[in-house]
Amino acid sequence: MKHILQITLGLWLVLFSLSLFAQVGINQSGASPEASAMLDVTSTSKGILIPRMTLLERNAIASPATSLLIYQTDSTPGFYFYNGSAWVPLGGGGPTYYRAIGTTDTNRPSSFTTASFLPLADMSLTFTPKSAIVYVTFTATGSLSPSCTGFGQNRATFIIRRDGVQVGNRFMNETVYFNSEGGIEYLPQSYNISYTYPVTVTPGVSTTIDVQWHSFGTCGAGLTNNPATSNNHNRTLVIVDP
Fold first, then answer.
1. Which residues pair with 161 in a beta bridge?
2. Phi/psi of residue 175, each to 5°?
3. pLDDT tens per residue, range 149-178
4. Are residues 129 and 188 in the same domain?
5. How would residue 14 be classed by pLDDT, with cut points 50, 70 and 90?
6. Residues 124, 128, 133, 136, Cα dihedral to 10°
7. Spatial separation of the C-alpha atoms in residues 226 and 235, rounded to whole Å
8. Domain membership of residue 79 as a residue range
């Protein structure tokens, strides 16, 4: 009975000491934890294993505490911490750039103001953002040809979409066609587009940014973007994730 009381008292003193000092040292030498550390782990042959989980499992954590740390095993694996409003990669190492370059010739058939937008070849990027806002830059040069006679005005018109939904306003480059002496001019006119737009995204969730185009104006016109065969034609889509 006496030994039982001594053991019980000893365990109580150990637990009381831990709760009083609220510091824990984990090592094989018996060394005390550093004074400034709540938890001090020392080893020359082993490491600390942070909880590992998938993106879906991470997003299922209810009311994560600010600074909560996990290791994500899929969809851009790495260490993530909760910053109070979103899961973000630990460290990051500066901005991440995503880029698509148009390499194939493509044409947009003649259309009028009621025409729907169509995908612009090669101008689509799918990525998993680490920030809540990314910056999308689209540039393109090409030609636009009229499909009617007389005086007309047309624009090469483009939109940026996030997951199939337009973001921001249309951006366009105006081109005017006119009657020439003795007949109608059908010579292709050029367009030159450069546009940057901030797009709101959800960190850690796969997102697709793409560009669509059509002609817009009083006279139907065909759009051409032929980087493979025309030196003055190009198109690029760049996303900066800060």
1. 166, 210
2. -135, 130
3. 556 667 788 889 999 999 987 666 655 554
4. yes
5. low
6. -20
7. 9
8. 49-92
